[in-house]
Every structure is written in C-alpha cells, then in structure tokens.
Amino acid sequence: MGGAFPGQFPPALRVAAIVQMVLVGLMAGVVLSRAGMALPRWSRASKRLVWVVVAYSVVGLVLNLITPSAQERMIWAPVTLFLLLFSAVVATSKPESEN
Question: Is the Cα torsion angle 86, 89, 91, 93 positive or negative in sign?
C-alpha cells in the first residue's frame, strides 16, 4: 500500500489489508466460477461479476504503474498485468459447461 509505513501497519491499514484480502478471495472465486473450475452455484452471477474483476485489474495495473515506489512498480505491475490478462481471457471465453 504505497510503502509509506515501514514495519507494522497502523490499525486502520491492517483493517484495510484484511478487507483487500477478502475482496481478492471473492474475485478469485468469481474467476474460478466463470472458468468452470469451482463454485458452480456462482456461475450465473460470475458472467457479469467477472467484468468487475477485469475493471479492478485495470485500476490495479494503472495504480501500480504510477506508484512512486520503484519496488512496487517492479514487482506488482507485472503481477497485476497478468491478473488483468488472465481475467480478461476468462471473461471473454465460454466455460466448457456452456459449449
């Protein structure tokens, strides 16, 4: 989160990190459901929610490209680029169950 706080995060940022962890877990579930790999009950909702994941990945990539932290750019920009590419592939592909 910007590298502004060396060491342990202040309490508010710890809560933010936990919220982010939950959101990333839910987004992973959406992508896995859309890909037909897990959570079949989410399949219907995942058709639209996967585009939220793609949009989130776009924002994440932009933010990681403009961060003042060189280490974050070096590590997280490629990671978010791959997340964007893979979520876009899943979003635009039909799962095996729809073929």
Answer: negative
- Report which of 19, 42, 43 is spatially closest to residue 98, judged by C-alpha positions: 43
CA dist., res. 44 & res. 66, Å (int): 35
Domain range annotation of the chain: 12-94
CA-based max dimension of the chain? 50
Is the pLDDT score of 96 beyond 70? no
Indicate whether 89 pLDDT > 60.
Answer: yes
Which ranges constitute the DSSP H helices of the chain? Answer: 11-34, 43-66, 70-92
Task: Indicate the pLDDT class of residue 93, thresholds 50, 70 and 90.
Answer: very high
Element holding 96 (H helix, E strand): none
Of 63, 80, 76, 69, nearest in space to 6 by CA:
69
Look up the pTM and report it. 0.83
